[in-house]
Design brief:
With 368 residues, the protein is α+β, with helices and mostly antiparallel strands. The protein folds into two domains: 17-199; 213-367, 2-Layer Sandwich (Alpha-Beta Plaits), CATH 3.30.70.270. Helices cover 66% and strands 9% of the residues. The chain has helices at residues 17-44, 46-49, 53-56, 61-86, 92-114, 119-134, 138-160, 165-210, 221-233, 248-255, 257-274, 299-316, 344-360, and strands at residues 212-213, 218-219, 238-245, 281-286, 289-295, 331-337, 366-367. The strands form two sheets. Strands 4-5-3-6-7 form a five-stranded mixed sheet, sandwiched between helices. The model is unreliable at 1-13 (pLDDT under 50).
Length: 368
């Protein structure tokens, strides 16, 4: 089966859905944390902001201390959430669960024992903020919303000493708002994800075309030089074969330029069949010249590939009556191996010098 070797586009890794979720957390978690910290600060500084409100509601020093400790805990955990989201640490769900549990206990206390009317809007704002910030991250959303959602009826039952039908109705409507609101937001997220995938595919296709020789369907010179420079900078082990179609000008003069293009496409096909693995790269260097990069390949193995190229071309038997070395198309090859200290241009120069020696020795051969 024929091996296909196309240049790899520069954009080789597309963002996964998990990566999109991680990015969403990094963007939205600071806002969610800001809301939690803001409310916690207001409650922590309540006596300064609202003229000693604890005395007005006859809050005991012990209860006041517990509330302050809870708010400090929320502030600390919220700050941790920002760091965890930005650095992609695990445990975000657990931190959200603890924050929500603290809020739930505090709000039940505010509603049942202090009967603060402001506690109900606080509940709603916290839940809706979580929906907006975490709708795409189901586990984190459930960790934050469920304790608050369950605390609402608990507070109502404790306050009213039983089930309040009006509250139960409002709670049911609010629950539907939460569920369908999350579904709507998630649909937008899915549509954005699909558009992102389509855009990435389009970019990849355009990038592949920009790095591919249209005639031979091999890597073009730009892609080859970029790959070669990266391999040299990463100190990878590889060998390079530079080859030239023998007497190609005479081929064009004899069969015409259209036949010459077809000949180059067939030679490229022979090269792609002769390399060892999909990691080896076949590229058109220019005109009738090609370069083959063989990774993790010694000079001796490169000679084996050169011999296989010759054998494949003999099987292809592309007629070349004007050639001075054979009745079929042949190539001359120069082989160079990467050694420490060489630059990409120096390595190409070595392979080009070896190619020149092969031509001087009679063509249809290789030189090292």
């Amino acid at each position: 089966m024929e091996k296909r070797h196309h240049p790899q586009p520069e954009l080789t890794s597309w963002p996964t859905r998990e990566a999109m979720v991680a990015r969403g957390l990094a963007m939205n978690m600071p806002w969610l944390a800001f809301v939690n910290i803001s409310f916690a600060l207001v409650i922590w500084l309540r006596n300064s902001l609202f003229d000693n409100i604890d005395a007005f509601y006859q809050v005991s020093p012990h209860a006041s201390l517990l509330i302050n400790i809870a708010m400090v805990g929320i502030i600390s955990l919220s700050a941790m959430l920002i760091v965890m989201a930005l650095r992609h640490y695990r445990g975000i769900g657990a931190a959200l669960l603890v924050i929500s549990a603290i809020w739930s206990v505090c709000c039940v206390w505010f509603i049942v024992y202090w009967q603060l009317p402001h506690a109900w809007p606080l509940y709603v704002i916290l839940i809706l903020t979580a929906i907006a910030a975490l709708y795409y991250h189901l586990s984190g959303l459930l960790c934050y919303v469920l304790p608050l959602w369950l605390a609402l009826p608990v507070a109502s039952i404790m306050l009213n000493h039983g089930v309040n039908i009006r509250f139960a109705t409002l709670w049911g409507v609010f629950t539907l708002i939460i569920i369908f609101g999350r579904i709507l937001l998630l649909r937008w997220f899915d549509e954005a994800w699909q558009r992102n995938q389509q855009n990435q595919m389009l970019i990849a296709r355009l990038d592949a075309l920009a790095h591919q020789d249209a005639l031979t369907e091999t890597a073009n010179r730009r892609a080859m030089e970029s790959l070669l420079e990266n391999a040299v900078s990463q100190q990878k082990s590889f060998s390079l074969i530079m080859l030239d179609v023998d007497y190609f000008k005479l081929y064009n003069d004899t069969y015409g330029h259209q036949a010459g293009d077809e000949c180059l496409a067939r030679v490229a096909q022979a090269l792609k069949q002769s390399v060892r693995t999909p990691d080896d790269v076949v590229s058109r260097y220019g005109g009738e010249e090609f370069v083959v990069i063989l990774f993790e390949c010694s000079a001796k193995m490169a000679e084996q590939v050169a011999a296989r190229i010759q054998d494949t071309l003999r099987v292809f038997a592309i007629a070349h009556s004007a050639s001075k070395v054979s009745n079929c198309v042949t190539v001359s090859m120069g082989i160079a191996g990467m050694t420490p200290g060489l630059s990409a241009s120096q390595l190409i120069a070595q392979a080009d010098a070896a190619l020149y020696r092969a031509k001087e020795a009679g063509r249809d051969r290789w030189a090292v």
